[in-house]
Amino acid sequence: MVKNKEALLEQIKADIVKNNICPDLAQEATNLVMGDGNVDAEIVFIGEAPGKNEDVTGLPFVGAAGKFLNEMLAGAEMVRSDVYITNIVKYRPPNNRDPLPDEKEAFWPYLVRQLDVIRPQIVVTLGRHSMEYFLPGKKISMIHGQPKRIQFGDTKITVVPLYHPAAALYNGSMRATLIEDFNKLSKIIDIQKQEKENI
Ligand code: URA
User: Fold this and answer.
1) How many angstroms separate the alpha carbon of residue 82 from the centre of ligand 1?
2) Does residue 167 come out as left (phi exceeding 0), alpha (psi in the -120 to 50 range) or beta?
3) Which ligand 1 atom is at minimum distance from the Cα of 87?
4) What is the pTM of this model?
5) Domain segments of the chain: what residues?
6) Which CATH topology does 2-198 take?
7) Ligand 1 geometric centre to CA of 52 (Å)
C-alpha cells in the first residue's frame, strides 16, 4: 500500500527517535519539532533550530521570529497553511545556542527525507545554518534574495537564501533587506509555476 505524506513524515519522526539522534539535545528537549504546514506545499521554509516557544509547543516558528515570519508571509499574500515550515535541527539547543556542525549533520538526512516526501519546487533557507547545506561555500551577505537552481537528489529545486527573521528582527537595515527579499518570493513562485506549465 502507498503511504500518504502524513504517514511518511510520521515515520521520519519515529526514525529520529529510534535512531537516537542527538541524545544530549533530546534529553533536554520537551518536543521533537518536525514541521508544520501544508505537506503538498510548493514552497518550504527551513530555519535553524527550535527556540523556547517551539520546544514547548512542538511547532516551528511560533515565537517572536515566527510572528515576524507570519507578517512577511501576509505581506507576500501567503498564510502558513500555504507553505511548509521546518528547521534543519529538530531539537532545541540549550539556551538557544547555535546548532553545532555535528548536530546539523546528524539531522540533515532526515531533512532530505522530509523534502523527498513534500517535493517542493522552492526551498527558502532562513539564515546561514540551513543555507550552507544547499549552497555550500556561499556567504549569505553576498547571495541573499537571489534564487539558485540546484540539483537535489533526482530533481531540480530553486533555493532562495534569506536572512534569518530572528537576526533581522531588531536590526533596521537587515530587517528592511529581509522584507524586500521576501517580497520577491511571489514573483519567483509565479516564474516557477509558468516554467512547470511550459514543460
Ligand atoms: N528560529 C528558528 O530557526 N526556528 C524556529 O523554529 C524558531 C526560531
Assistant:
1) 18
2) alpha
3) 4
4) 0.96
5) 2-198
6) Uracil-DNA Glycosylase, subunit E (3.40.470)
7) 9
